[in-house]
Amino acid sequence: MIRRGARLLVAGVGNIFLADDAFGPEVVRALERRPLPPEVRVRDFGIRGLDLAYELLDGYDVVVLVDAAERGHAPGTLSLIEPELPDGARGAAPPEAHGMDPAKVLALAAHLGDGPLPRVLVLACEPRLRPCGDEDIVPGLSAPVVEAVGRAVEALHAMVPVLLAEPAATPPLSRPEELADPSAAGLACPAAGGVEDR
Description:
By secondary structure, this protein is of the alpha/beta class. The chain is built from 4 helices and 5 strands, in the order βαβαββαβα.
């Protein structure tokens, strides 16, 4: 049974011109063919961090960010992450408002808002190729990440009813979901430290 009034946002983030960084927007596109329940807002934010920061303040119970994230798994691995939310201390300088680093977007939203942020989960996909710095545009996802898009849609269809019924619940995919035949492939950038899997 869905809890009356539960509000959920699924937000695709990433740059469609930088290879596997386009994972989030591609999942949102795939959801157009297989929509989530109507009470869920699904939106592609691309690299518009300021837009997402303001959207986080719109009274959602849960926000699921869909993004590529380097966590040291095989390319195409899906992980569900629950980051520690910033406290929005007012004395500090406002965080940067440009770009789409999810941690900076959460810090900006905490700085802009008066109350606590909604619960935030990240449905992350391990990229195979993610250009760095001033490299040329590299459109298109790598094969393992293309395959992960469909699995991410399945994961969201499993997670969303659980979160609508109880926003504090632990949804399925609480551990990294490895590919059936993982391949060791190098990344364009070194993996960065991150939060732990739920």
